[in-house]
């Protein structure tokens, strides 16, 4: 049994999904974003639980992520959000993944690859009638998407591609989480202008979708046919100031066990560079977790104003004098305990004082979902019971479940 593991409460994820759909505008549906292995929670298990709860559409970034979901029995709509290569398209077409298109050359090449597959039944004897794609429009994110100057050429390319059908059209907001309403409003207006222009040119997608988690909360009038929800499903709000709009549950708990414990005298140096020295007689406990597992790692944040900037500068300045603000803390028997010394690659030391504890005691760890090592075992629970691997596999929807999307 692993000494470090992650517990995922599937009921919490389903509850968050149900909170989202309660606030959808009429006609809108939730597209669950399960990219990056469902933000570290496990895309297969999360998608299965959501599909059982009625979710019919999922989004990933890469083709390989979509193929894994298909191989594991997920049968709803699966949209690949990121750029893809033509080497991946045959498998994507065979698995009926819906692809995002954001360059003109992709349309012609995709049409040609489909034609080759259709003429060669050995490649896929049950090939779908057309390749379903979603057009990505660049409105201010600055990553991928068709520019406003490409609308006429885009319409011509699609008209000449007999095997490519536009199922959806969307854009992505850059500042919705910062609640920059002026910028988001500008993006949305550009989206409406570009989609209207395409409709004039004969391109009329079945679905439109623009809202990520932040925009879903702030702009219900923009829900359209789908909202793309990831952050809210894992129990997090997209930024400060979004609380109280939904009742969310955190499905994630990272745990480890004490593997070494000893009593040390006052003045004992701890860890690399001896940046910590015990202040009194105490107990030091060792946990088998470190930065190789993602513990102590944090994404780089751009300061959101002068207050954030001063916090960052102050934290780094006082560290020169051996004062470490914001040091990680873990939870042992309901009590918060400080990490001491530098976090190692796979070992971390905590100062538990003279608290009653023994080898093997469980410790809760504040491990970020997106940086958690995927090799750390995930243990899933539902209705208060831990689920076996067999139960998870047998939990997929029956084969006769029908969807209206394909």
UniProtKB/TrEMBL annotation:
Taxonomic lineage of the native organism: Bacteria, Bacillati, Bacillota, Clostridia, Eubacteriales
Domain of life: Bacteria
Species per Swiss-Prot/TrEMBL record: Candidatus Desulfosporosinus infrequens
This protein's record includes keyword Mitochondrion: no
InterPro entries the UniProt entry points to: Ala_racemase, Ala_racemase/Decarboxylase_C, Ala_racemase_C, Ala_racemase_N, Ala_racemase_pyridoxalP-BS, PLP-binding_barrel
Keywords: Isomerase, Pyridoxal phosphate
PROSITE patterns: ALANINE_RACEMASE
Needed co-factor(s): pyridoxal 5'-phosphate
Binding site for substrate: 143, 345
One term of GO molecular function: pyridoxal phosphate binding
EC number: 5.1.1.1
GO biological process, alphabetically ordered: D-alanine biosynthetic process
GO annotations of cellular component type: cytosol
Name by which UniProt lists this protein: Alanine racemase
N6-(pyridoxal phosphate)lysine: residues carrying this PTM: 35
Domain Alanine racemase C-terminal: 251-381
């Amino acid at each position: 049994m692993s000494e470090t593991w992650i517990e995922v409460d599937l009921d919490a994820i389903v509850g968050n999904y149900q909170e989202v759909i309660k606030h959808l505008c009429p006609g809108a549906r939730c597209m669950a974003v399960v990219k990056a292995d469902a933000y570290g929670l496990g895309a297969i298990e999360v998608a299965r639980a959501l599909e059982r709860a009625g979710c019919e559409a999922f989004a990933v970034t890469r083709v390989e992520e979509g193929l894994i979901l298909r191989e594991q029995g997920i049968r709803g709509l699966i949209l690949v959000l990121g750029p893809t290569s033509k080497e991946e398209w045959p498998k994507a077409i065979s698995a009926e993944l819906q692809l995002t298109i954001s360059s003109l050359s992709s349309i012609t090449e995709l049409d040609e690859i489909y034609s080759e597959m259709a003429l060669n039944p050995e490649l896929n004897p049950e090939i779908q009638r057309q390749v379903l794609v979603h057009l990505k429009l660049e409105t201010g994110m600055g990553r991928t998407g068709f520019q406003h100057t490409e609308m006429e050429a885009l319409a011509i390319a699609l008209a000449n591609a007999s095997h490519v059908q536009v199922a959806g059209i969307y854009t992505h907001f850059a500042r919705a989480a910062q609640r920059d309403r002026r910028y988001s409003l500008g993006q949305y207006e550009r989206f409406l202008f570009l989609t209207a222009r395409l409709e004039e040119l004969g391109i009329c997608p079945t679905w439109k979708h623009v809202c990520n988690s932040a925009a879903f909360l702030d702009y219900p009038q923009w829900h359209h046919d789908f909202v793309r929800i990831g952050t809210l499903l894992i129990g997090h709000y997209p930024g400060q100031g979004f609380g109280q709009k939904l009742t969310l549950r955190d499905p994630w708990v990272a745990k480890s066990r004490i593997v070494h414990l000893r009593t040390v005298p006052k003045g004992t140096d701890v860890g690399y560079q001896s940046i910590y020295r015990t202040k009194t007689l105490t107990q030091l406990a060792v946990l088998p977790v470190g930065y190789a597992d993602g513990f102590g790692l944090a994404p780089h944040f751009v300061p959101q104003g002068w207050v954030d900037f001063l916090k960052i500068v102050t934290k780094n300045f006082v560290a020169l004098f051996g004062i470490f603000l914001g040091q990680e803390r873990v939870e042992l028997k309901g009590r918060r305990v400080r990490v001491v010394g530098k976090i190692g690659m796979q070992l971390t030391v905590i100062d538990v004082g003279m608290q009653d504890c023994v080898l093997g005691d469980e410790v809760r760890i504040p491990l970020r979902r997106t940086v958690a090592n995927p090799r750390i075992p995930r243990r899933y629970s539902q209705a208060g019971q831990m689920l076996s691997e067999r139960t998870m596999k047998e939990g997929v929807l029956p084969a006769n479940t029908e969807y209206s999307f394909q």
